[in-house]
Automatic annotation (TrEMBL):
It comes from Bacillus thuringiensis serovar vazensis. Keywords: Membrane, Transmembrane, Transmembrane helix. The chain crosses the membrane at residues 7-28, 48-70, 82-105. This is DUF4064 domain-containing protein. It comes from the Bacteria. The keyword Membrane applies. The lineage of its organism: Bacteria, Bacillati, Bacillota, Bacilli, Bacillales.
Amino acid sequence: MKISNKMFILVSIGILAMLFIRGIYNSIKFGDAEYGMAYVLGQAVGGTLAWFSIIALFASLTFLIIGFINKKRKKPIFMKSAITFGISIVSLVILVVIIFVSMNIENEHKKNR
């Protein structure tokens, strides 16, 4: 059974949407809502990006190794693997920025108490 690119993209978006909704639910359920809606959304986005970064990093490393092995035969595979690896690194950087922003919200909330 061959999966089309459109179906793969739709399934990926669905999985990321479920992770985002789960992140919002967990943030509200465990009492983090006292910091405000921006904090809850930051936690949900951070959790979603964390899962995305972990999955993308392992997938890109696997594809990079496969592309490196097949580099002599097909150069476009190696370039696609390198681009995927770069995107996963960028998502990790975005994740770190979101973590620092949410930590700043927590620290400001503690100072105002």
